[in-house]
Task: structure prediction
Amino acid sequence: MPATSRAATDAPDASDAAASLREAPLARLVIRRDGDAIAAAGVLARALRQIDVPVQVSPTATERQRSERVDGGDPDAATIAIGPVAGADLALDGDDRPVSIAAAEIGRELGVEPDAELALAGVVAAGELPADVAPALLERAEANGLERRDGVGIATDDLVDGVAHSLASHAAFSGSTEATATALDGIGIDGDARDAVTDDPSALADEQRRSIASLVAVAGTEGDAPEAAADSIERVLRPHHVTGPVPTLEGYAELLSTTAIVEPGLAVAHAVGDLSVDALESAWRAASVATHETLGDVDPARYDGVAVYDAGDAPSEIVAALARDALSPEPVALAIGTDAIALACRDGDADALVDALAEVADGDADVTGRYAVVRDPSETTDTTETALVEAIRDAR
Result:
C-alpha cells in the first residue's frame, strides 16, 4: 500500500534542537529530494562537522523510504528528518517556512555561522523571496557581496548556457544553446559580449541585462498559460547576484532542485562541502534538455482541471513542475514517466491529490514544495491515464 502517513510534527525550537545535537555520537539526516531540503541538510551538516559531530545524509525518494531509514538506523544516533516522519528525533517539515531557515537557526545555536548563500538558495528553491522570509540571512549575504541587478537568474557564468538550460521558463529556444545564441544575437547580445560574460559576469551593461530579461519574459509567455508563465519568470527577474559558487541565487536554487531529483548523491555531496558546484552542471543540463524536448514535442491530453503529459524518459517531477509553471492550460499538470508519476498544481491540496494517486496506483508517495510524486506503481493496478485523472478530480 502507498506510504501516505504524513504526520504533523511541530518544528523544534532551534536552541532545543542544537542541545540535542551537540552531544550526539552521530547525526543522521534523512531528507526528501528537493532543493530546500538539500540546502538545509548542507547547512546543518557543515555546522555539525565544525563541532566534530559525525554526519550521515540520506536523500530519500519517498516518505516510506524515510520511515524505513529512520526505523532502521543506529539507535544511538540523533535522527533528523527533513520531510517529517514518525520516529525521528527532530523533524523539519517546511510547511510554514523553508527548512533552510530552520537549519540556519540551529547552526547558529551550535555556534556556527551558516553559509548564507547556500541557505538562501534553499529559500529560493522553496519558492520564497529572501527579503520576505529570511532578512537576517539576506543581510549577511549582502555583506558578502550579494546584490540585486537587472537581468535574469542563471545557473552558470556562461550566458548562453544559463539561458538555454533554465528551468524557470520554456521558450522556443529552450534546451538548445544554438537556438539561444541566435535569439540573443537578435537582441544585439553578440558573441563578443557573451564571451566577456563567461570571464566576468558583470561585463553586461544594465540595458543589455534588461534586454535579456525582456527576451525571456516575452518568449516564455507564448504558450497556453501566459499568466502562470509570467508569474514563474517574474521569480527569476532582477536576480540576486552572488560572489559564488554560482552567479545568482536563483540559478543556485535551480541547480540544487534539479540535481536533488536526478543525482541526489551529487547534490548532497556539494551541499555538505565535499564537491564543487561544477560537478552538478552536467546532470542539470541533461535534465533540462530532456525536459524541454519533452514539453516541446508533446501536446498534453486535456481534461477538466488536469493536463496530462507523457514524460517518457525525462524526469517526471521536473516535467510536471515546469508544465505547471509555464505551459499547462489546466491548474494541475500530471506527468507520467517510465518509473514515476508526478503532479504539480497551482491550487488545491497537493497532499490530498498525491494520496489519491498513490492509492489508485498502489505506489510510494512523496510531496515537496515543487511537486508530488508516486514511485514504483504496481503493475497489477489500473494506472491508465483515465484512472489517474479520475482519482485527481475526485480528490480536488
Summary: The chain has 18 helices and twelve strands. The longest strand covers residues 306-312.
